[in-house]
Specification:
By secondary structure, this protein is α+β, with helices and mostly antiparallel strands. The chain contains 27 helices and 28 strands. The structure holds ligand C2E and magnesium ion (2 copies).
């Protein structure tokens, strides 16, 4: 370097310097204070010798010494490599005063700065010289960068980018404008365990640097809040610097920084406060450099702007998602609204046309909904709609879409692979509608009419399919409601058959509802005799259903249907109450120690309140729990042993009898039997039937009787029809007998008159 000479603003040394340059400098130099006040520096360049002179301010900008330099590249050691060649050729080409050139310089102390070189008009005294001024335009560049960031984000929001593109462009923009070699965005996501973690979703680095391994490492790890520099910045919500990445423990998870020679960096959080006042921290931005950069004063302010811009994007995305949600979702039920559901059906048509697959559309209309609205008010109606929507969504198979088309109209798009079970699904929907809804202690009941159409048989567009399903639905409405109709075009034979059996079952279910309300059930009692004491020990209550038209429906037909719906619980309650009332009558007459057996369904036993409810029932009729024996089958027990057995135990503790019905038909092991809280076994009719012919059955019956004796259980044989059967049973030690041989089920009045002296 050259030694300083006496001029106010410039260090000069004349030796080796062209006199022209020296003279030009002398004649054109402004005092240093002036330059500093005006924030510019001066430069002079002699294209013939390639020598250059810099004022103190200019030298400061370029991070070199002021004064004369033998070669111009000595002045440009801090210029970013990419900008060096354009700068050299610009100067050598004797630039015209109207053309200025922007270039970047980078230093460990100040980071990256933008400079603008502007030539001045040629001095007539030194026509061969080029001279001009140098200005630091970093603030202008930052302003335009902020503008550019805003533009990038707007572009993204306008839909021309994906979020990934937008963020990567933003990162790239920041790296280029602020001189970072690596930039990345870490966003929060839930870990498989549900905790928050940070993942490196997008990164960018200067293409000439080999940062691939650092990129790979970064995108393969997750950081917990507080972990590593990124995790701690996210947790604290404050920006942070790293001056020596290699020796900073916060980089222990990312060791490839050494290999890639990354040195220093700046990490800051992206945060925003949403309209509801919540602070959101969607992620963290990090920027690293291969230079050992020191803290830069302008960065915190700039990063706050960048963070705010990205946060604004996140907030707008959130806002857009909300708007989209509002546009697509029915507010009351949370299901897809009409227009969105139509869109989904249209999409399904297009996809099915392409893939040559089919799908079904179920149109559901609630029956008797209007009276609820009129009679109980809108809130009651809303409760029904919301609850039905909830049930519907619960029933929807994977890949199905559920919509509310308006009022009490719903629709279900059933994907091709779930169509085989469409009939079962519709049955479930009808049941979901007819299961009562609770509103302020009142049970509200509706039913549904469902019409089904299939793509492509009934139509190939959304309107055609809806119209066809709607027409099918109306056929049901006109046919007495609560049912389903498959559009005739879509019903091949199998479907038609399924449809008629569903229709029958559903009809039966509806009729059962009415039966309960209309008092169409009654009980018959079949005696159970003790053949040793010759007394009637108990009666089994057996339900009967006489329809309004007089026809009798056997329990084997309607009990399984009632069991599939909530109805069995209501029927069961009715049976218990009626049986208790009748038993009280019988005991008050002349059946002093008589007990009553009542058949129970599995779902009744799944109710943990059953023991208390039954205790209240027997007490209400002045009976004791041991006067009542509850019959349940092995099959029921095995269905939900974990729910049923604790209830059984509680019942036994209260003193109720529990009888295992149809014993021998199920699969209960002896080990299970030993631990069951039961008081009696009923040998299934099928073993009794062939007792006189089948030695096996005799052995089985004998074993069951012995087993019962060992376990102190009563053993009752049911279905005893012949004297031979009775004899064998008595020989085996079975004294409790029920069957047509001794008596058939009969009405209460018949029992009272047939056995005037009691059992
Ligand atoms: P279960 O509990 O095994 O009832 C015994 C069935 O055998 C009764 O048929 C009875 O009438 C019949 N039975 C009695 N003695 C003879 C006989 O000597 N020969 C023949 N062939 N049959 C005989 P029912 O009344 O038709 O009941 C059928 C089933 O319906 C019952 O089987 C029980 O599982 C169910 N059930 C009846 N009432 C109720 C009820 O109130 N609630 C529930 N959940 N189920 C009930
Ligand atoms: Mg029974
Ligand atoms: Mg039985």
């Amino acid at each position: 370097m050259h030694e300083t000479a006496g001029h106010a603003s410039l260090a000069l040394r004349n030796a080796g310097i062209s006199p022209r340059l020296s003279l030009a400098v002398r004649q054109n130099t402004a005092p240093a204070v002036l330059e500093e006040a005006a924030a510019f520096g001066r430069w002079w360049f002699d294209p013939e010798t390639s020598q250059m002179a810099l004022s103190r301010a200019a030298a400061g900008y370029l991070h070199v010494e002021a004064g004369f330099h033998d070669r111009m590249d000595n002045c440009f050691i801090a210029v970013v490599l990419d900008d060096l060649l354009p700068l050299v050729s610009y100067l050598s080409g004797r630039p015209h005063p109207s053309t200025s050139l922007d270039f970047r310089v980078i230093s460990a102390v100040d980071g990256l700065h933008w400079l603008r070189m502007t030539p001045l008009p040629a001095d007539p005294a030194h026509p061969h010289m080029v001279s001009g001024i140098l200005v630091d335009i970093t603030p202008i560049k930052h302003a335009s960068m902020r503008e550019r960031l805003g533009f990038e984000l707007t572009e993204f929001l306008g839909g021309s980018h994906t979020l990934g593109d937008a963020i990567t462009n933003v990162i790239q923009l920041i790296c280029k404008n602020l001189g970072w070699d690596w930039g990345a965005y870490w966003s929060t996501e839930p870990s498989p365990q549900g905790a928050t973690r940070l993942a490196c979703k997008y990164f960018w680095h200067q293409p000439e640097l080999d940062l691939a391994s650092f990129g790979q490492e970064s995108s393969s790890i997750f950081l917990a809040p507080g972990e590593g520099l990124v995790g701690s910045v996210w947790k604290s919500g404050k920006p942070d610097w790293v001056e020596d990445m290699v020796n900073d423990l916060r980089f222990s998870q990312r060791t490839n920084d050494r290999e890639c020679r990354l040195w220093s960096g700046y990490v800051f959080p992206v945060t925003y406060v949403s309209a509801d006042g919540h602070q959101h921290s969607p992620g963290v931005l990090e920027f690293y450099s291969c230079l050992s950069r020191q803290q830069e004063a302008q960065l915190p302010k700039l990063s706050a702007t960048i963070g705010a811009l990205i946060a604004q994007m996140a907030r707008r995305l959130e806002h857009q998602a909300t708007i989209l949600h509002l546009a697509q979702v029915d507010e009351l039920t949370g299901l897809s609204n009409r227009s969105h559901f139509y869109e989904l059906v249209t999409q399904a048509c297009a996809m099915s046309a392409k893939a040559k697959t089919s799908f079904a559309l179920a149109f559901i209309d609630l029956d008797r909904f209007k009276p609820i609205n009129d009679g109980f008010g809108h809130e009651a109606g809303n409760v029904v709609l919301r609850e039905f929507a909830y049930r519907l969504r619960d029933l929807a198979p994977a890949g199905a879409s559920v919509g509310r088309l308006g009022g009490d109209e719903f629709a279900l798009l059933i994907p091709g692979d779930a169509m085989a079970n469409a009939a079962g699904l519709v049955e479930d929907i009808l049941r979901a509608a007819s299961t009562p809804f609770a509103f302020e202690g009142v049970e509200l009941t509706v039913s549904a009419s469902v019409g089904v159409s299939t793509y492509p048989q009934c139509g190939e567009t959304c309107p055609a399919l809806l119209q066809s399903a709607d027409a099918a639905m109306y056929r049901i409405k006109n046919n007495g409601r609560n049912g389903c109709c498959f559009d005739s075009v879509s019903s091949p034979n199998a479907l038609a058959q399924q449809q008629s059996s569903i229709a029958q079952r559903l009809q039966l279910e509806t009729d059962l509802h009415h039966a309960l309300q209309g008092d169409e059930f009654f009980l018959t009692y079949q005696p159970i005799f003790n053949t040793f004491s010759q007394r009637m020990d108990a009666v089994e209550a057996l339900i009967r259903w006489r329809r309004a038209d007089g026809t009798l429906v056997p329990p084997d037909v309607f009990i399984p249907i009632a069991e599939q719906s909530h109805l069995i619980v209501h029927i069961g309650k009715w049976v218990v109450s009626r049986a208790c009332r009748d038993l009280a009558t019988l005991r008050a007459a002349h059946f002093k120690d008589l007990k009553v057996h009542v058949n129970m369904a599995a779902s009744e036993f799944a109710n943990s309140a059953l023991p208390d409810e039954l205790q209240a029932q027997v007490a209400a009729f002045g009976l004791a729990p041991h006067n009542l024996s509850l019959e349940l089958t092995e099959g029921m027990l095995m269905k939900r042993p974990d729910q049923v057995i604790p209830v059984m135990r509680a019942l036994r503790q209260l003193g109720f009898g529990i009888s295992l019905d149809d014993f021998g038909m199920g699969h209960s092991s002896l080990a299970l039997l030993k631990n069951l809280p039961i008081s009696s076994l009923k040998i299934d009719r099928s073993f009794v039937r062939d007792l006189s012919q089948q030695r096996n059955d005799r052995a089985i019956v004998k074993t069951i009787v012995d087993l019962g004796r060992h376990m102190e259980l009563e053993v009752i044989a049911e279905g005893v029809e012949t004297a031979a059967q009775l004899e064998i049973l008595q020989q085996s030690g079975c004294s409790l007998i029920q069957g047509y041989l001794l008596d058939r089920p009969m009405a209460l009045a018949d029992l009272l008159t047939k056995y005037p002296a009691g059992g």
